[in-house]
Amino acid sequence: MSRILITGGAGYIGSHTALTLLGVGYDVVIVDNFSNSSPKAVDALSALALKETGKQFAFYEGDVCDGAFLRTVFEADKIEAIIHFAGLKAVGESVAIPAKYYDNNLRSTLTLLNTMKEFGVTGFVFSSSATVYSDPGVTKYDEATTRVGRASSPYGTTKVMQEWILEDTALSGEIPLKVISLRYFNPVGAHSSGEIGESPQGIPNNLTPFITQVAVGKREFLSVFGDDYPTPDGTCIRDYIHVTDLAEAHYLAVKRLLEVDDLPMFDAINIGSGNGYSVFEVISAFDRAVGKKIPYKVVARRGGDLAEFTAKTEKAKKLFGFTTKLTIDDMAKDAWNWQNKHPNGFDD
Ligand SMILES: NC(=O)c1ccc[n+]([C@@H]2O[C@H](COP(=O)([O-])OP(=O)(O)OC[C@H]3O[C@@H](n4cnc5c(N)ncnc54)[C@H](O)[C@@H]3O)[C@@H](O)[C@H]2O)c1
């Protein structure tokens, strides 16, 4: 069976994807430097993988920017395709310390490309983001027509630049590369077992980990940033996708790279549900999941927030049959189950 390298596989999306790939029979090799995760996440994934799939993965601690380290990984295991999750992702920190983000995110991709060239590996699935779109007039983003360009944060711009590096390298023919760049919308939820999930360090940047921390009593209330947007209930609308569905999308992308001849050198594909939910609708889903009201206060709008953005999802469906299966209530239930079982993330 094919052996897939998952960079950043100790993190939130990478760990769920590793489990899915093991479940369908792939061999998995994970590298992570624990800059935003911990060995406890690897232990939890290992125990869950054994229970759910009867399989294990290889793990190497190290930095994807370190070419000598990567070479040892590629020498030890014949890798057939790569999923590159490793990256720094805190939007606020990227505004405060942009060089750290450009350095880690761009260098990790360049180092991977050099190593792939050396070892003749051609399949590359990239963790991109809806943040690459820079067209403020649009509410439903389409891969072919929505403008991609300088993003609203240095983090987002690293995603734009990584896509350009990958596309230019693939089109140059310097390496016989095939790239699928998955532009995620808003990943939420956790594995249904409650044994792996999102474990943010410090104050969560995203809505749903903040809600679950309020629900479990770690924070007093949720701040809702503005209820005067031009949406039906006045709060911002986003396209949420369950992390288990997102993991499935990675499986389908890898399968396409391994099994389909005559692919484009570079393809960017939205991965979302295609449906939008407002902040108030998300809070209501968590009220139902937790069985009590989540306390919140409406505060001033936050700079840079768009009223609404959701994905056009036809391309993922057409190219590799991907559609989401899990609902907003599944997302709330599983996120709450994980937080409730592990109030302090992998430290519990
Ligand atoms: N979570 C989201 O909302 C979201 C949305 C769009 C895109 N993405 C992208 O998806 C990818 C995974 O996101 P996530 O939410 O799982 O993040 P995460 O922080 O949980 O996982 C990323 C992992 O990469 C590791 N890492 C970072 N730099 C590394 C390096 N140089 N060498 C080795 N390991 C390194 C971290 O330790 C971490 O375990 C990231 O590239 C992120 O930008 C995430």
Q: Could you describe the largest sheet, including whether it forms a barrel?
A: 7 strands, parallel
Instruction: Tell the overall outline.
Output: globular
Low-confidence stretches: none
Mean pLDDT: 96
Q: What integer value in Å does the Rg equal? A: 19 Å
Order of helices and strands: EHEHEHEHHEEHEEHEEEHEEHEEHH
Computed structural class: alpha/beta
DSSP strand count:
15
The small-molecule ligands in this entry are:
nicotinamide-adenine-dinucleotide
Within the largest sheet, what's the order of strands?
3-2-1-4-5-7-12
Specify the helix fraction band.
40-55%
What is the beta-strand fraction? Answer: 15-25%
Oligomer: single chain
Count helical runs. Answer: 11
Write a structural description.
The chain is of the alpha/beta class and 348 residues long. It has helices spanning 12-23, 39-53, 67-76, 91-96, 98-119, 154-172, 207-215, 243-259, 279-290, 314-320, 328-341; strands spanning 3-7, 27-32, 58-61, 81-84, 123-129, 140-141, 178-184, 186-188, 222-225, 237-238, 240-242, 266-271, 277-278, 296-299, 308-311. 41% of the residues lie in helices and 18% in strands. It has a seven-stranded parallel beta sheet with strand order 3-2-1-4-5-7-12, sandwiched between helices. A four-stranded mixed beta sheet has the order 6-15-10-13. The protein has a two-stranded parallel sheet with strand order 8-11. β2, α2 and β3 form a beta-alpha-beta unit. It binds nicotinamide-adenine-dinucleotide (NAD).
